Predict the 3D structure of the following.
Amino acid sequence: MIEFEVTIPNVEISEARRRLRKAGAFLREPLHLQKNIMLFLPKGREIKGGWLRVREEKDKVTMSLKIVDGGKITDQKEFEFIAENAADACEFLEKMGAVEKARSEKRRENWDLDGCEISIDEWPFLESFIEVESRNEDSVRAAVEKMGFEYGKCRICAVDVLYHEKYGISEDAVDNHTPRIIFDMKNPFLK
């Protein structure tokens, strides 16, 4: 299904919270850690811009096929399922031919604004940013504007693009050649 989502990069967390409260949003989940395991799709089953992800957060584990294949909001797709636990989810995907490529962590705070899911994300070695997701582009645009941001300046991208822009490394290096992006490690993007 299409994932109607945009990113507002480089927003201080306190400023994001201030804008969300002013817009009338309410906090759904306080800041919490998410652990992600990304996997290559099975050989012969590759999809341009696609990868598999197993995510652990608090009391939930999800398994997703993510596809970002272009710069329009309709070029993002996500198919997500609830899993019993991360180990079984990874084993299932690996039995299907997927191969682990990376592990990452992020801290996320979830808000609700007029039915839109607003996330404040903190990734290691990157400035915090906001993601706005909803059922259609008009809802996303309305939420962005209600928070006082310019919709035309929003990004449609995965986090690899933000690392690429900050450190001048290729998105491929981030996606396929950086096996760990976690908080308790040396910055892998600095030489």
